[in-house]
Amino acid sequence: MGAMPFEFGGGWIEVVAGPMFSGKSEELIRRVTRAVIARQPVQVFKPAIDDRYDAVAVASHAGRTLRAEAVADIATLRERLDRSTRVIAVDEAQFFDADLVPLALELADGGRRVIVAGLDLDFRAVPFGPMPALLAQAEVVEKLTAICRCGKAATRTQRLIAGAPAHEDDPVILVGAAESYEPRCRACHVVLRGARVTPLFAAGASATS
Ligand SMILES: [Zn+2]
């Protein structure tokens, strides 16, 4: 395919993983931009659940954007695939179900380059959706870190509801604004477990599901 940072026989899978605010979307945009400059047919997808910004753009927190197709599920993504596409990028991959894994394998087996970006861990630090299987199947894995409030490298996403650490029983999927999540290191990451000491829906709580 030329001008690639890696060269494998057939296709391959690249995973860019890490907590929120670690620059995953930025890195996906950087890789896709290089492929576009190299005149390789590229398609970028993202789950329709993520409506933080433009419905047809992969948006990073730094504000750079890239045109993407928002799809409700993997069956829809499969329908939208063009046979001529050589590079398939998927952002926010943690929100897709397990069907993303066999699709990524099929594409790589078919000689395509598959770039997947997503959260490796949910707010409880539990492997998120199809990400663990994709991390295992990938030829290339890049784990990005953010900066924890203590100044160390953050590998996890702290979920805050009304400014307090979320409980492990709170719903996993809640696409929110910056004030709801913080990057944290292992030592600073807090998940409340067991009996609740505060009401689930305290005044000012941002939970919506
Ligand atoms: Zn820390």
Q: How would you describe this protein?
A:
The structure is a single chain. This protein has helices at residues 24-37, 74-80, 100-109, 131-137; strands at residues 12-17, 42-47, 57-59, 65-67, 69-71, 87-90, 113-118, 140-143, 146-147, 153-154, 156-161, 164-165, 181-184. It is an alpha/beta fold. It has a domain at 12-144: P-loop containing nucleotide triphosphate hydrolases (Rossmann fold, 3-Layer(aba) Sandwich), CATH 3.40.50.300. The protein is elongated and about 55 Å long. Zinc ion is lined by residues 148, 150, 152, 184-185, 187-188.
Name some characteristics of this structure.
single chain, binds zinc ion, alpha/beta, 6-stranded parallel sheet, 24% strand, Rossmann fold, 209 residues
- Main CATH class of the domain at 12-144: Alpha Beta
CATH superfamily of the domain at 12-144: P-loop containing nucleotide triphosphate hydrolases
First-last Cα distance? 44 Å
Largest sheet: 6 strands, parallel
If classified by CATH, what would the architecture of the domain at 12-144 be?
3-Layer(aba) Sandwich
| Residues in helix, % | 10-25%
Bound molecules: zinc ion
Q: Give the strand line-up of the largest sheet.
A: 5-2-6-7-1-8
**Series of secondary-structure elements, N-terminal to C-terminal:** EHEEEEHEHEHEEEEEE
Secondary-structure blueprint of this entry?
Elements: E1 12-17, H1 24-37, E2 42-47, E3 57-59, E4 65-67, E5 69-71, H2 74-80, E6 87-90, H3 100-109, E7 113-118, H4 131-137, E8 140-143, E9 146-147, E10 153-154, E11 156-161, E12 164-165, E13 181-184
Parallel strand pairs: 1-7, 1-8, 2-5, 2-6, 6-7
Antiparallel strand pairs: 3-4, 9-10, 11-12, 11-13
This protein binds zinc ion (ZN).
